[in-house]
Amino acid sequence: MTAPASPPVAPPSWTSMTLNRYVVELKEFLRSREQMVFIFAFPMMLLVLFGSVFGGAVLDGTDVTFAQYFLAGMVASGILNTGFQSLAMSIAIDRDEDVLKRIHATPLPATSYFAAKILQVLSVTVVQVVILIAIGVALYDVALPSDAAHWGTFAWVFLLGTAGSTTLGIAMSSLLRNAKAGSAIITPIVLFLQFTSGVFLIFTQVPAFLQTVASIFPLRWLAQGMRSVFLPDEFKYAEAAGSWQLPLTALILAVWVVVGLVLAVRTFRWTRHDDN
User: Staple 270 to which of 104, 203, 222, 250, CB 3.0 to 4.6 Å?
Assistant: First the structure.
């Protein structure tokens, strides 16, 4: 007598594969001391350092302290660092170590891999932003918005900024010839954007031609969008255009999401550049 046939096992769903990969990505991040220091400790150190040195200074013509101004910039910069710099370098390392090649040879859909990466970046960025805001409130008495409209602005600026930074990070990972070149290429780019986009310096104090250059890139608009959330509304008159320019901010960030997505799709490589 033959044994009854076992019922067919259903293949794992896209959602389950994505969530499993997300857990793997999160564990790999938590095990990387270098990434943990860069993503969490470095921005915290900068916020405490700049806040302690300049925190009590009131910006000319306003009641805004430098610590409050700097918090908005650090939140914006943290989004860029996590989604662009850290992600680009981590993917480049995985490519150099043939991790991407092995993943590509498995049944895991490419969309699941990228979705897991995006979820990991989003989770880490949320934690980082919460920590920065908590430090600003606890150490420098930064006032948080109390109305839904400002938090609604925070939500869409955060999501568009994270989406753009992530797609650009994926695209940049393929432009790096190898992981060792990552820090030498990406770090100067990020530092240039931070100094010209109103993160470390007051944006209107940056030379006019550098303001124009910075306005091409997303960090300038991401930082201004965050200032519209964390700074009083009257501060908009101290901005370069005399307003928060939120519609233009949304448009430019959305354009960079599309640009990053197109570049990521067209340039992404699963194998090293020296592989045939």
Answer: 104
Rg (CA), the chain: 21
The whole-angstrom separation of Cα 75 and Cα 47 is 10
Sign of CA dihedral 205, 206, 207, 209: negative
For residue range 8-47, what is the model confidence (pLDDT) as tens digits? 666 788 899 999 999 999 998 888 887 788 788 888 888 8
Angle ∠(27,29,35) on CA atoms, nearest 5: 160
Helix or strand holding residue 28 (H, E): helix 14-31
C-beta neighbour count of 263 within 10 angstroms: 17
pLDDT under 70: residue ranges of the chain: 1-10, 55, 275-276
* pTM (2 d.p.): 0.91
Whole-angstrom distance, CA of residue 214 vs CA of residue 6: 63
Residue type, 218: P
Q: How far apart are CA 208 and CA 211, in angstroms?
A: 5
